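Quarterly update from the structural biology core.
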Amino acid sequence: MERTPLESWIMQKIGMGESQKALERYQLDKLKETISYARKNSVFYKQHLMNIKEDRIDSFDSFQDIPFTFPHHIGQNPFDFVCVPQREIKRIITITSSGTTGEEKRIFFTEADLELTVDFFKYGFKPMLSKQDRVLVLFPGNSYGSVGDVIKKSLDISDVVNFVQGVMVNPDATAKFIIENKINAIVGIPMQVLYFSRIHSEIFKNNIEKVLLSADYVPEVLISELSNIYGCRVFTHYGSSEMGYGGGVECGALNGYHLREADIFFEIIDPDTGKPVEDGQYGEIVFTTLIRQAMPLIRYRTGDIASFSSAPCECGTFLRTMTRALGRADNRVKLGGEQFLYLRELDETILKYKDVLDYKASITDQNLLKIEIATENKAILKDVEESMQTLLYKKLGYKMDFAVIANPDSKPEKIINSMIKRKISDFRGTGI
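Predicted structure, tokenized:
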């Protein structure tokens, strides 16, 4: 198996020997530089890091003394994070909160910041794609510096034929486009790809050989279905707008992400204590940008859950491997006592039925869990009910009233029309 190309790329970028220790020396130096740069140029970090002396950051242990940066800090005043003159800003991403605060986060990038991601994607796609492939990108790409635009630039550099269609709104038109343009690879949002594969299974059977899924939790049932039924090689990617889209991507082993470690330093912490967890233990992903110009982020808490693998990757790299992310820690609802229901649990329970095209989940003010299924086969509702009963009663140990209903209006082309991530809607206390 070919070793991940991210290894040689990272070593070339840092200009040091090929070893984990060399990478760690580089990262520690860059962490100190980032602290100094941010405190000098950012209104927020001048105050936030007031008591931090970078010359005392002599180990990763001492780096853990630095206070976390939280999403609400950006939401309160994103301009306080900016470290460059406004004329140097080439891209602003506005992230609307899916929570109750309504805060909007704005993330700023210079041209050099965007080029870092283009470079990462160029090497990140190499295990999946070659010059013989023809790729359909189902991400927004009309705006300069958008995720689709960045992906296109990286594929153009590698001479991989690609088409950026944007978020899918017409599956039939997409199917026709794939046939006419001899597409054999797709890059897209998990739930859109699931929906598309289930209403146009012939496309995946006859045309699609490779898939990369990103931008939301990737259900294991989807990976299994695309791999085992259609023979697709399914790669997953982890990233966020805050980290500049790209964070980590799978190699040919297809068993977790190799990370963008020359540009970003990753930690995994216990979300309650803030302390690092052992390899193999799940916790919250925290990252620090190492060479970001416009808006460096230091110990930024993502809310995403994953772990560092305790075993080396089969590809042979010395780079760390992060397990596939389990979604957001707060993408859950409290059922009773200490029992929680996570969106990922609903995904794995409901989406294993191929007649389910999509679903929405909510808890009403009457404490009723309502599952709205997009399906053309209403007979499947009984099977979903039985699986939900097993999940709620046996696995979670909590009895709760629930209803599984067919809702033809909950199709992805209507409800997934942006990059907003899915969630379980909790209407308790709202009168709904």
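Residues 332-426 form a domain with the GMP Synthetase; Chain A, domain 3 fold (CATH 3.30.300).
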